[in-house]
Amino acid sequence: MGQFEQSEQFEQFELIVRGGMVVLSNEVRPADIGIRNGKIAAVVDDLTSRSQAAQVYDASGLYIMPGMIDAHVHLNEPALGHWEGFETGSAALAAGGCTTYIDMPLNGVPPTVRLEALEKKLALADGVSAVDFALWGGLVPGNVERLAELAEAGVIGFKAFMSCPGGEGEDIFAEVDELTLYEGMKEIARLGKVLALHAESEPIVSKLAKEAVAAGKRGAMDFVNSRPVLAELEAVNRALFFAELTGCALHFVHISSSEAVELISSAKARGMNVTVETCPHYLTLTLEDVVRLGAVAKCAPPLRSSEEQERLWAAVRAGKIDIIASDHSPCPTSMKDGDMFEAWGGISGAQSSLELMLDEGHVRRGIPLPELSKWLSLNPAKRFGLYPRKGEIAIGMEADLAIIDMGESYTLASSDLLQRHKHSPYIGRSLGCRVKATMVRGNVVYEQKPDGVKLTARTGRWIRYDEGNGGKLYG
Ligand SMILES: NC(=O)N[C@H]1NC(=O)NC1=O
Ligand SMILES: [Zn+2]
Ligand SMILES: [Zn+2]
């Protein structure tokens, strides 16, 4: 596993992906990929001359990468499927070269904080998702005793908010109070799972937001200034303190500052079981974009300065960031009208993550493709129990592939987007590569051709945690 292997014994394949440049975990090389029973059965030079396949996909001139594993996606069913649901959200992900996503326990109603809610969500995803998926459970005040049933059912971990997530209604996903966070960590440690945290200090951000609104300061920069890096640092520090006391494994989602990455790096150096994620928007957009675009680029934590962004890229390059995920948090476009404090916070970026990271990371900054692939596929697979089933192109692993033209540039138009509501801060952006096809377990689920796009089989399956490797990222 994990190696390029010469294979002579497999002569019959369902599919051969022929003539592409294959992105392996340690090199990029020309090879044919033979697929049997939905798995990678051969990665060799010139397979077609000595084997048979029901189908051949001609990938000459194209790059074959492991499909992205997007660990941070909000598809909002049950109840808020009119914001985004499994059908449209997974179509957008497929079009972006993602082959497995991990759905967040909010913003659907009920949130995934007890078994019945998980069952409702699964019933809605069944037969609808274009690509494979796993599920996060949620930790909220009052549900610590329900975490075990969710773990038993197969969630890959739990998510909690340290600041208010927004949203309305009775069955809301509330932020954790300190005691819930501490007790929840104890229980999650006992269950052997990871706690994913939205780390912003509620006392800091709510006070600053109140002051800004009271002073009539409701613009883009006022919003950005109400959620400073300090709020992220304080929350990360507090969570690390509780994790040290409880032994709970942590994953910090959507970290926006290199200062927070440094805090997390020191915790790793002390031997703590902690990982960190950032998102394409923090690596490709800055506060100038939120000023220019308004609420369509509103997210929490907010976009930062270009200097902060350069420091974040330096942290990525230094291997200090483990995972890059979209935090696709869509809503109806009408919820992006109005002032910056009222509008929905969340960027609809699912379809663009891989292309943005290849364009900005590889084409512009020269980061090798195997490195990018580690942050986009291998590390999330390992951290969240999907490895060695998924995460890289290697013998025996599922044939989850993104096929990319690294020579095609295009300008993203709203008509390219397959998500339910066609807003995105990346519309009008020129991208130096394009996903041509996406395969899940050897099934072509998405194809982009000159005459348009084709979505095929909705063969996405739920991947339970217990099929994985226990979340070991290192070693
Ligand atoms: N509720 C929700 O999805 N919030 C997400 N949006 C965002 O920008 N950050 C988040 O945590
Ligand atoms: Zn969040
Ligand atoms: Zn999120």
UniProtKB/TrEMBL annotation:
<dbReference type="InterPro" id="IPR006680">
    <property type="entry name" value="Amidohydro-rel"/>
</dbReference>
<dbReference type="InterPro" id="IPR032466">
    <property type="entry name" value="Metal_Hydrolase"/>
</dbReference>
<feature type="modified residue" description="N6-carboxylysine">
    <location>
        <position position="159"/>
    </location>
</feature>
<keyword id="KW-0378">Hydrolase</keyword>
<feature type="binding site" description="via carbamate group">
    <location>
        <position position="159"/>
    </location>
    <ligand>
        <name>Zn(2+) 1</name>
    </ligand>
</feature>
<feature type="binding site">
    <location>
        <position position="254"/>
    </location>
    <ligand>
        <name>Zn(2+) 2</name>
    </ligand>
</feature>
<dbReference type="Pfam" id="PF01979">
    <property type="entry name" value="Amidohydro_1"/>
</dbReference>
<comment type="similarity">
    <text>Belongs to the metallo-dependent hydrolases superfamily. Allantoinase family.</text>
</comment>
<comment type="similarity">
    <text>Belongs to the metallo-dependent hydrolases superfamily. DHOase family. Class I DHOase subfamily.</text>
</comment>
<dbReference type="InterPro" id="IPR050138">
    <property type="entry name" value="DHOase/Allantoinase_Hydrolase"/>
</dbReference>
<comment type="function">
    <text>Catalyzes the reversible cyclization of carbamoyl aspartate to dihydroorotate.</text>
</comment>
<feature type="binding site" description="via carbamate group">
    <location>
        <position position="159"/>
    </location>
    <ligand>
        <name>Zn(2+) 2</name>
    </ligand>
</feature>
<keyword id="KW-0659">Purine metabolism</keyword>
<dbReference type="InterPro" id="IPR047604">
    <property type="entry name" value="Allantoinase_bact"/>
</dbReference>
<comment type="function">
    <text>Catalyzes the conversion of allantoin (5-ureidohydantoin) to allantoic acid by hydrolytic cleavage of the five-member hydantoin ring.</text>
</comment>
<protein>
    <recommendedName>
        <fullName>Allantoinase</fullName>
        <ecNumber>3.5.2.5</ecNumber>
    </recommendedName>
</protein>
<dbReference type="InterPro" id="IPR018228">
    <property type="entry name" value="DNase_TatD-rel_CS"/>
</dbReference>
<feature type="binding site">
    <location>
        <position position="72"/>
    </location>
    <ligand>
        <name>Zn(2+) 1</name>
    </ligand>
</feature>
<dbReference type="GO" id="GO:0004038">
    <property type="term" value="F:allantoinase activity"/>
</dbReference>
<keyword id="KW-0862">Zinc</keyword>
<dbReference type="InterPro" id="IPR017593">
    <property type="entry name" value="Allantoinase"/>
</dbReference>
<dbReference type="InterPro" id="IPR002195">
    <property type="entry name" value="Dihydroorotase_CS"/>
</dbReference>
<comment type="subunit">
    <text>Homotetramer.</text>
</comment>
<keyword id="KW-0479">Metal-binding</keyword>
<dbReference type="InterPro" id="IPR011059">
    <property type="entry name" value="Metal-dep_hydrolase_composite"/>
</dbReference>
<feature type="binding site">
    <location>
        <position position="74"/>
    </location>
    <ligand>
        <name>Zn(2+) 1</name>
    </ligand>
</feature>
<feature type="binding site">
    <location>
        <position position="198"/>
    </location>
    <ligand>
        <name>Zn(2+) 2</name>
    </ligand>
</feature>
<feature type="binding site">
    <location>
        <position position="327"/>
    </location>
    <ligand>
        <name>Zn(2+) 1</name>
    </ligand>
</feature>
<feature type="domain" description="Amidohydrolase-related">
    <location>
        <begin position="63"/>
        <end position="445"/>
    </location>
</feature>
<comment type="pathway">
    <text>Nitrogen metabolism; (S)-allantoin degradation; allantoate from (S)-allantoin: step 1/1.</text>
</comment>
